[in-house]
Fold this protein.
Amino acid sequence: MKLSEEVKNKIIEILDSKEFMSDLYEGLDPAKREELGQFYTPADICITMIEKFHTDSLANKNILDPTVGSGNLLIACLIAGADSDKIYGNELDAIAVKLCRKRINRACDILSKPHIQDWQIHKGNALDSFCLKEFGPDYRQKLEQHYLDEQFSLFPMLSKEQQEFLKEVD
C-alpha cells in the first residue's frame, strides 16, 4: 500500500504530538515494560509497516495487531483509512489494554470516526492462537471455556495463573 505524503505527515503529526506522546506509557511499570519487551512503535515504523500491506485501501479491512501495546500501529491505520469498527488488538498487559482503548478513541475523536468497542482491544497472550482469533463482546466467557477445554482433568479447574489472567481480561 502506498501512503500519500499527506497521510504520512498526518500519522507523524498525531503520533508524535505532545498529546499522544505524553501518555504513551501511562500507568505502565517500567520494570514490567522491560520484562515484557514493551516499546512503542514509532510513527515512521508504523508508516513502513502499513506500506507493506498488500492492499490499495484499509477501508473495510479487518486489522489485528497481536501485540497492540498502547495502540500506535492501529492509530496509524485509522489515519490511513481503516474503519474503527474493523480494528482489533491483543495485549498481554491489562493496563496497556485500557491505555490503548483510551488512545484509539482519542484518535477517533480527532478523525471524526466512531469509537471502538472495548472488546475490540482485549487482554490476551499472542502466543495463544485463541486470543488472536476470538473477538467479540463474549470474549471473556469464550476464553474461560477455552481454558477449561484444554484441561485434561475430570474435574476441570482453572490454574491460579489462568484465574489471575481472567481477573484482568475486562
